[in-house]
């Protein structure tokens, strides 16, 4: 169980991940468009793209097989492992200190850094702990990271995953019994109560892990107030992300806040736990050595796994690029490119699926993966020399314009746009975006260089605006500078202090 992933041991395959999120289509068609993650490397099932579909729980494998499989799955879900020896060595030193402070005498966990800009962390028994590049970029000192690592290990030592699994089994039995002996309405009420109980149960586990983690980190010599600082940073990160993406798109990525928001109550409880240990100023924050360890790390998207530069998206490894319509903000989720226009009135999704080479695109587009298809609208076309087919569909209050493109043998890309009113003007904008989809050249890939963190020392007279002006992020440089440095607007810089900036 992770700090921001409900249960690391229950992560599903790509296929079930897609279908589980697609079940939210009953609430809003655009939600499914943004949330459904496609089975990009697996055979497709017959579940409509924008229709609900229950998924039976997978049969649990043997413990050793499960641990190995979950390790590989987690690495794949977060764009692979990120090798950065200075940071790995420093984080493993923290884990040794935490193990020495733990009275159980357990062996130290080992860290795996994940190549993802999403902020997340989790642990898997018997001794693996994972943190993303995004989390390391957000944290500002060793005590904050120590609090996160200790929190994740606390979930394992407190057997939270096992307890939650038992609670879920109990709730499932009660719900099934209610569906047999009571009315449908009463059964739904019982199920709703069970779901709220599980949610409350999970929140209590998070608070318990916070308390354990703060105590262990403090015993290891770290500042116990680091946990509260990091939780505050999470709240600010969510606010910035929410201002960039619609609520639908923001929900589509398994980030640190997906199931465990940084609520004021949680922050307050973390502060209270620290106060029980001592007044502010106790323990080490170790800001300078931590910043030295992450100096030079990749920041944001890895161009090899998909880079967003304004409205443009380029995926170096897969070899394609795409330009979103004006006004769209993009997000590179684990299995798809998601986009939303301000206010959530329009949305887009780009993903890929395996389709037999002999299957005509017109047949695939009508094969049942999306509900409400207008079959009379199906037409063949071409996009930058690649065979394509287009169609429209409707679901509830939403209208879809979709295009499938034969990119390479057995691989089809799907470009799906959603809007409440599919006017001629909207079609023109969406089709211009579709026409931008193309294979990239080696020179185009090289031109999109990865961004990286750089640590700079503030000189006398330096201001927040001056350092923010050096940020290489494409948008809202000041907001990102404040976020990754834990600063507030108008707050003066401290001469001689180290700060993070983003450079090419």
Short summary:
With 504 residues, the protein is an alpha+beta fold. The chain has helices spanning 14-22, 29-35, 63-77, 85-101, 133-138, 142-157, 160-181, 184-219, 226-244, 247-250, 264-277, 287-294, 361-365, 424-435, 442-447, 464-468, 477-485, and strands spanning 110-114, 121-124, 128-132, 298-299, 307-309, 312-315, 320-323, 328-332, 337-341, 346-354, 373-383, 386-395, 398-408, 411-419, 438-439, 451-457, 498-503.
Describe this protein's structure.
The chain is 42% helix and 20% strand. By secondary structure, the protein is an alpha+beta fold. It has a seven-stranded antiparallel sheet, with helices on both faces. Strands 5-6-7-15 form a four-stranded antiparallel sheet. Strands 1-3-2 form a three-stranded mixed sheet, sandwiched between helices. Helix 6 (142-157) packs across helix 9 and helix 8 (184-219) packs parallel to helix 11 (264-277). The longest helix is centred in the middle third of the chain and has 36 residues, at 184-219.
Q: Which labels suit this protein?
A:
disordered N terminus, 42% helix, 4-stranded antiparallel sheet, 504 residues
Write the layout of secondary structure elements.
Layout: H1 14-22, H2 29-35, H3 63-77, H4 85-101, E1 110-114, E2 121-124, E3 128-132, H5 133-138, H6 142-157, H7 160-181, H8 184-219, H9 226-244, H10 247-250, H11 264-277, H12 287-294, E4 298-299, E5 307-309, E6 312-315, E7 320-323, E8 328-332, E9 337-341, E10 346-354, H13 361-365, E11 373-383, E12 386-395, E13 398-408, E14 411-419, H14 424-435, E15 438-439, H15 442-447, E16 451-457, H16 464-468, H17 477-485, E17 498-503
Parallel strand pairs: 1-3
Antiparallel strand pairs: 2-3, 4-16, 5-6, 6-7, 7-15, 8-9, 9-10, 10-14, 11-12, 12-13, 13-14, 16-17
């Amino acid at each position: 169980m992770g700090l921001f992933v409900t249960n690391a041991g229950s992560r599903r395959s790509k296929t079930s991940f897609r279908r589980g999120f697609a079940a939210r289509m009953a609430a809003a068609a655009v939600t499914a468009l943004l949330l459904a993650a496609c089975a990009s490397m697996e055979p497709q099932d017959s579940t409509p793209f924008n229709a609900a579909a229950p998924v039976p729980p997978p049969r649990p494998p043997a413990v050793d097989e499960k641990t190995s499989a979950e390790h590989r799955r987690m690495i794949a879900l977060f764009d692979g492992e990120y090798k950065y020896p200075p940071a790995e060595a420093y984080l493993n030193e923290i884990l040794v200190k935490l193990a020495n402070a733990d009275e159980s005498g357990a062996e130290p966990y080992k860290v795996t850094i994940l190549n993802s800009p999403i902020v997340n962390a989790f642990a898997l028994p018997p001794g693996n702990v994972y943190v993303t590049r995004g989390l390391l970029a957000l944290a500002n000192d060793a005590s904050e990271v120590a609090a996160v690592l200790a929190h994740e290990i606390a979930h394992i030592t407190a057997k939270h995953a096992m307890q939650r699994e038992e609670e879920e089994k109990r709730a499932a039995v009660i719900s099934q019994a209610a569906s047999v002996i009571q009315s449908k309405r009463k059964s739904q009420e019982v199920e709703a109560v069970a779901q709220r109980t599980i949610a409350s149960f999970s929140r209590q586990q998070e608070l318990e892990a916070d308390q354990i983690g703060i105590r262990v980190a403090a015993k290891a010599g770290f500042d116990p107030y680091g946990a509260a600082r990091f939780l505050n940073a999470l709240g600010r990160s969510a606010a910035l992300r929410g201002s960039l993406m619609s609520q639908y798109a923001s929900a589509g990525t398994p980030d640190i806040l997906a199931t465990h928001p940084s609520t004021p109550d949680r922050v307050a409880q973390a502060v209270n736990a620290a106060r029980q240990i001592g007044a502010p100023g106790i323990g080490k924050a170790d800001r300078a050595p931590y910043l030295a360890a992450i100096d030079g790390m990749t920041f944001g998207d890895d161009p090899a796994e998909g880079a967003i530069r304004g409205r443009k998206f380029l995926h170096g490894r897969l070899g394609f690029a795409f330009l979103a319509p004006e006004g769209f903000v993009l997000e590179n989720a684990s299995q798809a490119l998601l986009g939303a226009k301000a206010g959530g009135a329009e949305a887009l999704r780009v993903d890929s699926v395996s389709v037999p080479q002999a299957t005509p695109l017109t047949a695939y587009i009508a094969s049942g993966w999306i509900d409400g298809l207008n079959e009379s609208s199906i037409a063949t076309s071409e996009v930058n020399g690649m065979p394509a087919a287009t169609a429209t569909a409707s679901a509830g209050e939403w209208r879809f314009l979709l295009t499938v493109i034969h990119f390479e043998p057995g691989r089809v890309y799907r470009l799906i746009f959603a809007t409440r009113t599919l006017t001629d003007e909207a079609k023109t904008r969406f089709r211009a975006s579709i026409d931008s989809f193309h294979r990239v050249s080696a020179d185009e890939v090289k031109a999109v260089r990865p961004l990286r963190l750089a640590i700079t020392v503030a000189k006398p007279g330096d201001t927040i605006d001056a350092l923010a002006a050096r940020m290489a992020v494409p948008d809202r440089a000041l907001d990102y500078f404040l976020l990754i440095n834990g600063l507030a607007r108008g707050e003066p810089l401290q001469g001689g202090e180290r700060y993070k900036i983003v450079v090419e």
